[in-house]
Amino acid sequence: MAQITAALVKQLREMTDSPMMECKKALVEADGDIEKAVDVLRTMGIAKAVKRAGRDTNEGTIATYVSEDGKTGAILELSCETDFVGTNPKFTGFAADLAKVVAEQNPADVEALKACSMNGETVESALTEMIHVIGENMKVLRFQRVAVENGAMTGYIHLGGKLADIVVCEFSKPETGATDEFKTFAHDVAMHIAATAPVATTREDVPAATVEHEMSIYKAQAAESGKPEAIQERMAQGRLEKYFKEFVLCEQEFVKDSSVTIDVLAKKVSKSLGDDIKVKTFVLYRFGEEA
């Protein structure tokens, strides 16, 4: 039997907003496995949502870069030692420069990025110089490059660089281009992503393992009702549909206008621009969160 510590109970409580005693009971039932304890609480109907558990990190920022034509971009996380430096324009500007290098030179990983060229020197040399100038250690934690052939993208940075995303849209007509109307739409979607943290762009993009896991929870919840199996199955399917509407980007209600979903919003701008514009994908980073 695993030891159920106060720290473990506290962590589960912070993740689920559930009562402390219920958290302890769930951990006992799950033999100290916090992920299983979350499922126990959800099955009991106590935990309706689960926060992503934070981890201790250094300070820093997330930067985005999108090319002028909107076809290539990158998002990058750069750490430092203090919040003071993390919001320093010299530091955040350097992070943005690194994101541009990622977009333009497409390095495979952090080590490859260090070997890339940046203002006549390597990124590694520029990083070392920045460390000396600012007086704090810095580290590129992760990055991702995105590109689209027929379409465009935009980036959004929130919470002083602690939360950022890039949303990529696809056009059916290459000549459409990133018009002002499209840019407004894409910015709204990027802002929406930062606010709602969807798990996927469409329901087809949700990993099969995730759908299976959710269904196992909903079936267990339905079984608690004591109703016939056929009704339990419909209850579980209904809850899965609700999950998709809550966590899948294109099915979510738009944060600025709950009368429309993101998919409907895309159809409206498509009609206005005379094209079929679709939200293809997105990348969302929270500072200090595992990739």
TrEMBL record:
Keywords: Cytoplasm, Elongation factor, Protein biosynthesis. GO terms for molecular function: translation elongation factor activity. SUPFAM superfamilies: Elongation factor Ts (EF-Ts), dimerisation domain, UBA-like. Residues 73-289 form the Translation elongation factor EFTs/EF1B dimerisation domain. Residues 82-85 are annotated as: Involved in Mg(2+) ion dislocation from EF-Tu. Its main location: cytoplasm. The keyword Cytoplasm applies. The keyword Cytoplasm applies. Belongs to the EF-Ts family. This is Elongation factor Ts. It comes from Paratractidigestivibacter faecalis. The lineage of its organism: Bacteria, Bacillati, Actinomycetota, Coriobacteriia, Coriobacteriales.
